[in-house]
Amino acid sequence: MSSALEALIKKLTGLLNVKSLVTLALTVAFIVQTCQGALNKDMMTIYSMVMTFYFVSQTGVSSGGGD
User: What separation in angstroms does the CA of 60 have from each of 9, 25, 37, 41?
Assistant: First the structure.
């Protein structure tokens, strides 16, 4: 049981980096603007660029970095 709790804490602390926090904040803003019907073209562009960067960099980390 304690090893599962330790693993959960380790995963949660891994989320606390700047890249993840920015991605989460932008996702919340995107969802709020979408629900309000106030989503504009600039937000769509910024969100898609950040998501692309985040998932490309995550793929690079999980596959060994490519260097």
Answer: 24, 22, 35, 29
Integer Cα distance of 4 and 28 in angstroms: 28
Environment class of 3 (CB within 10 Å of its CB; exposed 0-12, middle 13-18, buried 19+):
exposed
What pLDDT tens digit does each residue of the chain (67 aa) get? 588 888 888 887 877 777 778 888 999 999 999 999 998 899 899 999 988 888 887 766 655 554 4
> How far is 16 from 6, CA to CA, in rounded Å?
16
Rounded Cα gap, residues 8 and 1, in angstroms? 11
Rounded Cα distance between 67 and 43, Å, is 33
